[in-house]
Design a protein that fits this description.
single chain, about 450 residues, Beta-Lactamase, Transcription Regulator spoIIAA
């Protein structure tokens, strides 16, 4: 049975209040537990998203690194005369291709990162380069420069640089440069200029023709040599030789196709039709793939050369004739020893040419010295045969026709026997054994002649 006292009523009220409080706390605990579960779930989701983001970031970093490697590979394998680089707004290098960093004396692009032009082999021109960089960043437009750059080995490279501003999200971060090394091109251009000067100033005709033998180039000497108007270009090669040589020209083309070169002398022809002797040197011209692109030829006008050769030959013949005359004079000396008396000492062998010289000199001496007695001394002649004897007889007969007497001296015992054996008939020739006796005879004969005239 319930107690209706006020005390019990208060207890019941407190208990009811406590139960409501407990229920409320339980609800709150349940709600807090649910919220904690929700937070845990959210944390787990956030962790998963973070992991996914980290994975994606790792992939992006790997992809960026792969792209960077790919870009570096691409720019490293540009044509070897192309250099690529990029700098920040302070002028510090951030990277470059192989051509660029090797010219800087580095072995990897990382070795130039953070350096400026003052740290490079071209430090002496750093102020100029940095001023160019600033102009590009300020103006925001591409600029083209031709610059002399000192490489790591100290050599000077001629470089054409294209510099553009490096812009991202409207902000200028620095510059990107592309440099083309034109050193070899400049050297080749200089060589071509030198070659052209040589070709244009050589006295020989230099020509180039296409595979159909149509002239495509002719130097000044060729234009002057052949005289085609307004130019030799466009003329076919067969118009440059006489008609009789055109078949030979076809054969030369076949020969040069086989051997690569040919050299020959032929008769060339000018535009006027005038012929001239020429030396042709021809060669075949091919491209890098070995295909025929034409023919090169050098033609030398031999007119003056052949004239000079003919003049030299004529001069040489004159010299030879003078030498022969001198030899004859030395081999057949004629000496006057008294008025009307001359002596010719003959030494060595006597052939038909020398025999003729003996006769000519003797007759000339008779006339020159008004000789009445001619002494032919053969002391120095070792062998006298039929030919020598006949020559002496002809000389004696010719001298007699001019009114002179011939005295033969120096006849040894061996020569006397030979003359007898060959049946030589000396006719009216006076023979003396020695030159001394011959001179004595001649002097006596001269005195007798003078006495008879008195």
């Amino acid at each position: 049975m319930s107690d209706g006292s006020p005390k019990n009523h208060n207890v019941q009220a407190e208990n009811a209040q406590l139960r409501r409080r407990i229920t409320e706390l339980e609800q709150r605990l349940q709600e807090a537990t649910q919220k904690a579960a929700d937070v845990q779930t959210q944390l787990q989701q956030m962790q998963q998203e973070l992991q996914q983001s980290q994975s994606a970031l790792t992939q992006l970093q790997a992809e960026a690194q792969r792209q960077q490697v790919l870009v570096q590979l691409l720019i490293d394998h540009l044509p070897q005369e192309i250099g690529v680089y990029w700098k920040d707004h302070n002028g510090c290098y951030l990277g470059g291709n192989r051509k660029m960093y090797t010219d800087a004396g580095a072995s990897a692009p990382s070795e130039i990162v953070g350096k400026t032009d003052y740290d490079m082999p071209w430090a002496d021109r750093a102020d100029v380069y940095r001023a160019d960089d600033r102009a590009v960043m300020i103006n925001g437009i591409q600029q083209l420069y031709e610059e002399a750059v000192t490489s790591s080995d100290g050599s000077t490279l001629w470089v054409v640089s294209t510099k553009v501003p490096w812009v991202y999200n409207g902000e200028v971060l620095g510059i990107v440069g592309i440099a083309e090394d034109r050193t070899k091109r400049k050297q080749q251009e200089a060589q071509l200029r030198t070659f052209k000067i040589l070709v244009e100033n050589t006295p020989d005709a230099v020509m180039i023709s296409d595979p159909h033998q149509i002239i495509t180039y002719a130097n000044a000497a060729a234009e002057a040599m052949y005289g085609f108007q307004p130019t030799l270009v466009g003329v076919t090669a067969d118009q440059l030789v006489v008609p009789a040589e055109r078949l030979l020209l076809d054969q030369l083309v076949e020969e040069v196709m086989k051997t690569g070169t040919v050299r020959i002398q032929l008769r060339a022809q000018r535009a006027s039709g005038a012929e001239f002797p020429a030396q042709l040197s021809g060669l075949m011209m091919r491209d890098d793939q070995g295909q025929l692109i034409g023919f090169g030829s050098v033609v030398r006008d031999l007119t003056e050369e052949q004239r000079a050769i003919a003049e030299r030959q004529a001069l040489q013949e004159q010299i030879i004739a003078a030498q022969q005359k001198l030899v004859r004079e030395l081999s057949t000396p004629l000496m006057p020893i008294a008025d009307g008396v001359v002596v010719m000492p003959i030494i060595g062998s006597v052939d038909s040419q020398r025999a003729q010289a003996i006769m000519e000199t003797t007759l000339e001496g008779i006339t020159t010295y008004s000789a009445e007695v001619v002494i032919l001394d053969i002391t120095g002649v070792r062998v006298v045969d039929t030919q020598v004897a006949a020559a002496l007889l002809r000389t004696a007969r010719a001298a007699q026709l001019l009114g002179a007497e011939v005295v033969l001296t120096g006849i040894s015992a061996e020569i006397a026997q030979t003359l007898v054996q060959i049946g030589a008939n000396l006719g009216n020739i006076i023979a003396q054994s020695s030159l001394q006796q011959g001179i004595a005879y001649a002097m006596h004969r001269r005195k007798a002649l003078v006495h008879s005239l008195r």
